């Protein structure tokens, strides 16, 4: 156990036994009545926006990317902004699942399932864009190195190609990691569900899990290896995405600070998204016992920390521009601040620099409404950051005759809103059919919280009956 | 002779008890033993003589194969000639 | 089997018999047909490879099975069944034809009726690219944008394809019949009711044809009219010398040039040559570290002002007084100039005087005759005659007072004296001065014929319209600005068979039909009158020029009563507030003839960078005075005529003056002339631009004061390629940032000679160095250095470059001599077949030119210095576009060229983002 964390009762609230944990988590999936109006509304809205996205994509494939606002010089617009934004959001989930695992932070136990699902869905939303932003998406398979009669290999010097591998690696590793973690819980659902169809589906997915010690041993071994794989991915994937810009020579893009700056920004935006989802969902599904204020508090602190890093990054950029003495860099900063898109820059400073400062105050951190609002500002701010970096830099190139303006069209906006819908749809779909909290890890946490084999009488927790919820002689299965 | 006993199942209320039992059973010479728990209990698998070296080796070798394979995909030299 | 009595079927009959059948009936019809012997015979004749294997007789089912869609008898409406023959590949190819290799032929392009030699590249019998003819004095191997774009005009889909008679498609024979009838009626009147209207004719052959025609009809009259009229030039010549002379400028001998609103880089028949000659004296080389000096007095910002070392904005109405003042200062006797406030005159005159014999004053052709006559006098005084310019006899076949002739023509029409009007290659219904009401008068003439490339405004209302053959399709000849004759050699048969050239039409109308080749060859055979004409003719065609046809210099002297003979107008109404309007040919569509040429429509105009539109150009001060700014629609009223147009600020335009470019607002120009794709009508407008001809009258062809301008409400979106309006918002600082960024380096000749190559005023300071250090920071280069032989390779970023193994390609453009004429942009577009995108997409910043000319301003808004910088792909050795393409669609060749492989590109656009 890490010296930093004090295992204390605050990670699980209320009287809980293994059974109550089990029931509570599985109930959300098995009992169809547990999903009420909020779920329905979110799911339907997500679904509708998903349809919107489908239409936009169809129109895009039919007419081409000219329907967007991209032009010369702003060749990348909302498409790449959205791509980077979504990928960034995904990093929080992996950080929670993988990095916090390696750091032995048990507060991750209740949020990691949910956060990792968020990662997967965010990557799904992001993954559309590298494909669709190309002029000939049906030729995008040329980015993969397959043997061909042209003897052509893709160009490995290109950051876009690194992206292809990074994102696909990230998607596959996250998916496998997430699924692996799901297996014991799927087995639990298999055992608990009464409906034969669901039993069958969960059973098939659970791959014969019986909770045997040998299973657990292999599970832990594999899980930690995947966590070990995922950890560098948190850092590398967004660094590679940042290379899309850092490797280019455009003023405003060519910043060596970008890899850590982007990664920090990713975690920042990701935690904002986790909180945006966690705060309402824990209320609607009554998961406050598991996702406690402790969790919220810590997540807010991580947000503050990464927000400060991001803000520091802005200050660095400003300093570098001036210190470089390079007229292009200086002008780039000048245009960012005072040019036609200056409003975006100052909005950005507000959202990413000023607003997170509120998180210093515990009163605000623990005020769920305030925190929720702050998270929206953060999400917006991170989107604006990508806008400022990508589009505003493009509109002010080296040659003044290459300067231009970018205006989004309704298809840009429609696509973005559509991906938000896709994300919402997937997320709420997930809530309905899979356990949003890692069942067994919560039980493990409960066990560790109550001490090994010591039954402290003074603790208010689930000790009589015993941990398994059995009274002596009770032969129920758990 | 009464019916043959195929297996004995023991249920414990506490993971620590499970661990103690596992060690004892193994010490008594029982090998066809399996311990079930709702979450991993450390030490039980080792006490029963399980090891997951297969998993580890598979992972490692897959990683090596993947890595070497990946290097084959990329060209060694990107200068255009 | 074969019954000789049976009639042989032909396709007409088959079609006829099937004509009224549809659907299933059709099949039945076909099937029945299949069974007949006649059809079998037809099949055998036409499609032997089908008939033979079937052993002639087949039943209906077999026919159906086999024919499918391939015979498709019912749809063969477009075919002509030629006599059966064999197709073989080239066994004996036409001379020199190797498929895939281009052939080059010399020809001549026409500009304002004058010729400029060109060499046309032809692939498999189709002309694809126009270049200059090095042997031709007006070209010396170069062309202008119009000549480059003519190749597209040849293939223009909106060209007229059929003869039209009385509004209906008709045949050429029908036309000839009708024409002969009309002409016959004129026989008794000696042809007094016949008028021929052409543009300026320099072509000796055409002149001869016209003379022959006039000989047949002695009372007939021939009117020449070109909307960009040289009348003032001729009148000036009369005023000065008592006769019409042609001025041949020799810029390669001039060290000091004063241009009075002349656009000699682009708008003169000799402008291609002038640009070359000027640049010879402009270029600073190892051998010659001197530059000529150009002073420009200008109203509308033009290329001349852009190139000028010193530019003085002045209204066109004031130029007469200015020139008079200069004349007086220079020493022309007998001139009393009106008072003029132009402080620069002294300095300029001093400079011109110091360089007598090497200085030159050139006046714009639109200036008043008095002004131009004064310029002749100034040149004479400066000793320019015989050194920097020579006078020759006129090059035009018959110099005439074109506007006067037009007035007479209209008077005759109104007096019903005109019965037959032949319009050969002109479009007066569109561009004739509005007070002539040409279109309305034209329809009153009993028999009108229009010969034109397009069925344009005139062709539409004329009785007969004959499609004209493009100059690349027909023989002809033309004379250059110095008189040199060159032959117009066609490269392709007329694409639309019925097209005729003016020569052919006239020949036919004389009752002696001849092809244009016969006409031209016949004329020259007679004129050259040498033995072995054929050999000489081949040589002429090969080189493109007829030798020894340049006009010899003549000696003319100013008339003794020259000075008093000029009555100088006082500055109109003495009130500088009286805004004047200036009419000018458009830099890219000229007088409207190129309005349907997509390349030229999309070519950004050199100074204003406008595309697809014309605008009301004015200075910043004038706009402020009127309370308008860019894109505001204003109504310009002159006399009782009005025209609406959008405002566009032209930096450097003279105050209290507006410029309207001609050539827009065409209603029958074709699809492109109507605005191309993506245009949304605004305020009830359609199409590209507004028609400035509506304000232009014979009394004020070029300039007029007394115009009133008021806001008409609304805006008209303009597509300009200079997307950032440099001067607009922030402060004038942007103006300088170009120079701070070291993109354009300026220096004076003196500093250059001292080895200072132009440091930016506040250049990039090397970081970490203290004040007062003098090292020049080495700029980052995309071209790695070669430091030595093979062993010491240049290396940047670890990439070694061995220039012995690989080439590095470079193109350097001398920014000193670049006039900004934009010919390179069109040439690139022609060579690489670059698409046009239309106004809407140009507004969105998506134009596709591979090379563009950037135009930067430095200085004050009222009279800035202009700098041009062509920007094309630099073919960097370390091209930033190459490493970032994920699919390697942009690669580097052995030659050192950057190659964009279109078929590999998937469109990530990273290459574009990474190009600096």
Report what the structure shows.
The complex is a heterotrimer of chains A (478), B (81) and C (916). Chain A has 478 residues and is an all-alpha fold. Chain A has one domain. Chain A is built from 15 helices and no strands. The N terminus and C terminus of chain A are likely disordered. By secondary structure, chain B is mostly helical. Chain B has one domain. Chain B contains three helices and no strands. The N and C termini of chain B lie far apart (87 Å). The model of chain B has no long low-confidence stretch (mean pLDDT 86). Chain C has 916 residues and is of the alpha/beta class. Among the domains of chain C are: 68 residues, no CATH class; 173 residues, Rossmann fold (3-Layer(aba) Sandwich), CATH 3.40.50.740; 146 residues, Dimethylsulfoxide Reductase, domain 2 (3-Layer(aba) Sandwich); 149 residues, Barwin-like endoglucanases, CATH 2.40.40.20. Helix content of chain C is 28%, strand content 18%. The radius of gyration of chain C is 32 Å and the shape is globular. The termini of chain C are far apart. The relative contact order of chain C is 0.10.
What characteristics describe this protein?
heterotrimer, A: 478 residues, mainly alpha, 15 helices, 66% helix, B: 81 residues, 3 helices, 0% strand
């Amino acid at each position: 156990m890490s010296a930093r964390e004090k295992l204390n009762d605050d990670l699980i609230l209320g009287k809980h036994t293994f059974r109550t944990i089990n029931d509570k988590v599985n109930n959300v999936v098995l009992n169809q009545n547990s999903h009420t109006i909020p779920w329905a509304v979110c799911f339907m809205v997500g679904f509708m926006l998903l349809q919107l996205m489908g239409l936009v994509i169809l129109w895009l494939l039919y007419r081409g990317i000219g329907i967007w606002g991209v032009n010369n010089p702003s060749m990348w617009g909302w498409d790449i902004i959205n791509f980077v934004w979504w990928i960034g959001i995904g990093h929080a989930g992996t950080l929670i699942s993988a990095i916090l695992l390696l750091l032995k932070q048990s507060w991750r136990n209740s949020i990691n399932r949910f956060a990792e699902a968020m990662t997967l869905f965010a990557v799904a939303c992001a993954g559309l864009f590298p494909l669709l932003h190309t002029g000939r998406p049906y030729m995008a398979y040329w980015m993969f190195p397959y043997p061909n009669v042209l003897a052509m290999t893709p160009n490995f010097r290109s950051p876009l190609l690194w992206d292809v591998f990074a994102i696909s690696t990230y998607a596959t590793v996250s998916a496998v990691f997430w699924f692996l973690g799901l297996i014991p819980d799927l087995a639990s659902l298999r055992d608990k569900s009464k409906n034969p169809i669901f039993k069958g589906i969960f059973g098939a997915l659970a791959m014969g899990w019986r909770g045997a010690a040998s299973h657990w041993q292999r599970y832990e071994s594999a899980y930690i290896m995947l966590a070990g794989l995922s950890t560098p991915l948190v850092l590398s994937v967004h660094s590679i995405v940042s290379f899309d810009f850092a490797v280019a020579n455009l003023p405003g893009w060519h910043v060596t600070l970008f890899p850590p700056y982007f990664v920090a920004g990713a975690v920042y935006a990701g935690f904002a998204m986790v909180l945006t989802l966690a705060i309402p969902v824990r209320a609607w599904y009554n998961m406050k016992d598991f996702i406690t204020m402790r969790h919220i508090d810590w997540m807010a602190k991580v947000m503050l920390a990464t927000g400060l890093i991001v803000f520091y990054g802005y200050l660095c950029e400003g300093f570098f521009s001036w210190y470089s003495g390079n007229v292009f860099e200086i002008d780039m900063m000048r245009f960012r601040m005072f040019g036609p898109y200056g409003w975006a820059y100052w909005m950005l400073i507000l959202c990413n620099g000023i607003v997170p400062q509120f998180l210093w105050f515990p009163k605000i951190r623990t005020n769920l409404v305030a925190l929720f609002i702050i998270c929206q500002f953060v999400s917006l701010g991170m989107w604006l950051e990508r806008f400022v970096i990508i589009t505003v830099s493009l509109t002010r190139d080296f040659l003044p005759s290459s300067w231009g303006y970018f205006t989004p069209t309704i298809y840009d906006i429609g696509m973005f809103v559509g991906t938000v819908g896709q994300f919402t749809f997937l997320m709420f779909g997930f809530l309905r059919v899979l356990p949003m909290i890692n069942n067994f890890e919560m039980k493990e946490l409960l066990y560790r919280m109550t001490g090994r084999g010591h039954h402290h009488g003074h603790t208010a927790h689930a000790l009589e009956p015993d941990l398994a919820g059995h009274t002596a002689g009770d032969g129920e299965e758990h | 002779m009464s019916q043959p006993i195929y297996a004995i199942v023991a249920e414990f209320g506490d993971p620590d008890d499970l661990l103690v039992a596992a060690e004892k059973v193994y010490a008594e010479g029982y090998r066809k033993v399996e311990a079930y728990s709702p979450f991993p209990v450390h030490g039980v698998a080792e006490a029963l003589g399980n090891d997951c070296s297969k998993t580890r080796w598979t992972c490692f070798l897959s990683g090596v194969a993947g890595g070497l394979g990946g290097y084959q995909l990329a060209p060694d030299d990107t200068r255009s000639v | 089997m074969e019954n000789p009595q049976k009639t042989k079927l032909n396709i007409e009959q088959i079609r006829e018999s099937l004509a009224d059948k549809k659907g299933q009936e059709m099949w039945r019809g076909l099937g029945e047909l299949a069974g007949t012997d006649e059809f079998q015979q037809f099949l055998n004749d036409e499609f032997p490879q089908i008939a033979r294997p079937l052993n002639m007789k087949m039943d209906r089912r077999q026919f159906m099975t086999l024919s499918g869609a391939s015979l498709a008898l019912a749809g063969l409406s477009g075919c002509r069944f030629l006599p059966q023959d064999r197709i073989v590949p080239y066994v004996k190819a036409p001379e020199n034809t190797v498929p895939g290799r281009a052939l080059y032929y010399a020809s001549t392009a026409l500009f304002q009726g004058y010729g400029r030699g060109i060499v046309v590249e032809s692939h498999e019998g189709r002309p694809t690219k126009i270049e200059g003819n090095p042997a031709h004095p007006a070209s010396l191997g170069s062309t202008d944008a119009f000549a480059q774009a003519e190749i597209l005009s040849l293939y223009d889909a909106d060209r007229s394809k059929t003869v039209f008679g009385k509004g209906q498609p008709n045949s050429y024979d029908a036309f000839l019949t009708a024409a002969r009838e009309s002409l016959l009626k004129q026989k008794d009147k000696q042809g007094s009711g016949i008028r021929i209207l052409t543009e300026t004719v320099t072509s000796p052959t055409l002149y001869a044809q016209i003379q022959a025609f006039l000989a047949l009809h002695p009372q007939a009259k021939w009117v020449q009219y070109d909307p960009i009229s040289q009348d003032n030039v001729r009148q000036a010549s009369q005023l000065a010398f008592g006769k019409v002379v042609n001025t041949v400028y020799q810029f390669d001998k001039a060290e000091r040039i004063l241009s009075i609103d002349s656009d000699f880089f682009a708008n003169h028949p000799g402008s291609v040559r002038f640009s070359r000659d000027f640049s010879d004296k402009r270029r600073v080389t190892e051998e010659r570290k001197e530059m000529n000096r150009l002073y420009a007095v200008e109203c509308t910002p033009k290329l001349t002002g852009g190139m000028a070392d010193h530019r003085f904005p002045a209204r066109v109405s004031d130029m007469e007084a200015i020139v008079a003042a200069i004349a007086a200062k220079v020493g022309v006797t007998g001139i009393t100039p009106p008072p003029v406030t132009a402080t620069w005159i002294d300095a300029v005159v001093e400079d011109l005087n110091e360089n007598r014999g090497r200085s030159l004053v050139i006046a714009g052709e639109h200036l008043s005759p008095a002004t131009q006559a004064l310029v002749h006098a100034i040149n004479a005084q400066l000793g320019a005659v015989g050194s920097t310019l020579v006078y020759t006899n006129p090059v035009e076949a018959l110099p005439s007072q074109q506007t006067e002739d037009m007035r007479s023509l209209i008077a005759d029409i109104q007096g019903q004296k005109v019965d037959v009007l032949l319009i050969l290659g002109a479009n007066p219904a569109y561009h004739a001065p509005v007070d002539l009401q040409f279109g309305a008068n034209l329809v009153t003439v009993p028999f009108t014929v229009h010969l034109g490339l397009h069925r344009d405004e005139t062709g539409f209302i004329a009785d007969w319209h004959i499609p004209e053959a493009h100059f690349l399709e027909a023989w002809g000849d033309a004379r250059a600005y110095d008189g040199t004759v060159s032959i117009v050699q066609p490269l392709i048969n007329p694409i639309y068979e019925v097209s005729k050239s003016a020569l052919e039409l006239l020949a036919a109308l004389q009752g002696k039909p001849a092809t244009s080749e016969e006409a031209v060859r016949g004329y020259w055979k007679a004129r050259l009158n040498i033995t072995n004409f054929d050999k000489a003719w081949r040589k002429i065609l090969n080189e493109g020029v007829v030798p020894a046809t340049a006009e010899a210099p003549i000696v003319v002297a100013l008339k003794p009563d020259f000075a008093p003979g000029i009555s100088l107008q006082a500055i109109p109404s003495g009130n500088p507030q009286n805004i004047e309007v200036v009419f000018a040919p458009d830099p890219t569509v000229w007088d409207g003839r190129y309005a349907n040429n997509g390349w030229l429509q999309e070519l950004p105009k050199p100074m204003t960078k406008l595309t697809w539109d014309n605008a009301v150009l004015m200075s910043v001060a004038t706009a402020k005075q009127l309370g308008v700014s860019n894109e505001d629609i204003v109504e310009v009223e002159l006399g009782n005529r009005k025209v609406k147009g959008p405002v566009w600020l032209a930096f450097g335009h003279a105050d209290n003056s507006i410029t309207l470019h001609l050539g827009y607002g065409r209603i029958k120009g074709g699809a492109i002339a109507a605005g191309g794709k993506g245009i949304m009508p605004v305020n009830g407008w359609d199409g590209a631009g507004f028609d400035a001809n509506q304000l232009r009258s014979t009394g004020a062809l070029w300039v007029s004061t007394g115009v009133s301008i008021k806001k008409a409400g609304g805006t008209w979106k303009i597509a300009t390629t200079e997307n950032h309006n440099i001067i607009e918002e922030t402060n004038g600082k942007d103006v300088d940032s170009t120079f701070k960024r070291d993109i354009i380096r300026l220096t004076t000749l003196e500093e250059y000679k001292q080895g200072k190559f132009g440091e930016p005023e506040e250049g990039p300071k090397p970081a970490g160095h203290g004040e007062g250090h003098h090292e020049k920071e080495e700029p980052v280069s995309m071209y790695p250095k070669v430091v030595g032989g093979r062993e010491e390779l240049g290396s940047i970023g670890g990439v070694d470059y061995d220039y012995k193994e690989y080439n590095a390609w470079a193109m350097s453009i001398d920014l000193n001599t670049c006039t900004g004429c934009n010919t390179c942009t069109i040439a690139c577009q022609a060579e690489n077949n670059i698409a046009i995108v239309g106004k809407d997409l140009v507004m969105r910043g998506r134009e596709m030119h591979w090379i563009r000319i950037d135009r930067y301003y430095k200085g004050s808004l009222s009279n800035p210095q202009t700098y041009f910088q062509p920007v094309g792909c630099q073919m960097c050795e370390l091209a930033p576009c190459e490493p970032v393409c994920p699919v390697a669609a942009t690669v580097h060749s052995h030659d050192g060229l950057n190659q964009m492989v279109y078929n590999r590109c998937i469109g990530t656009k990273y290459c574009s983002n990474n190009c600096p």
